[in-house]
Amino acid sequence: MNSTGGGRKRKASGRRRRPAGDETAGEGGPDDALVLIAAAAAKLAKLARRHKFEVLERLFAMARLEADEQQRSRSRRKLS
């Protein structure tokens, strides 16, 4: 049985809500996420290298490089 979407709708409160997980500053923000991602990717690349998973090693190394580049890009924007 399908509902056609009828019924009463909630009235908007007028406040804008941030989407869940959209931290912009402080603990848990994008900068902290990039640090965590870079560290995790480096550890995973090392694990892949140890077990001779060459493609995974390169992918994790690329992920670490991308996280590092994102960090540099964000810090340049903050200085401007």
Give a written overview of the molecule.
The chain has 80 residues and is an all-alpha fold. 59% of the residues lie in helices and 0% in strands. The chain is built from 2 helices and no strands. The protein is flat and about 60 Å long.
Low-pLDDT stretches are none
Helix-strand sequence = HH
- Summarize the main sheet: none
Could you say which overall geometry the principal axes of the C-alpha atoms support? flat
The secondary-structure class comes to mainly alpha
Helix content: 55-70%
* Integer average pLDDT: 83
Q: What's the gyration radius in Å?
A: 21 Å
Q: How many individual helices?
A: 2
Terminal-residue CA separation: 57 Å
Counted beta strands: 0
| Strand residues, percent | under 5%
Secondary structure elements and pairings:
Blueprint: H1 30-50, H2 54-79
Descriptors:
80 residues; 59% helix
The gist of it:
The chain is built from two helices and no strands. It has 80 residues and is mainly α.
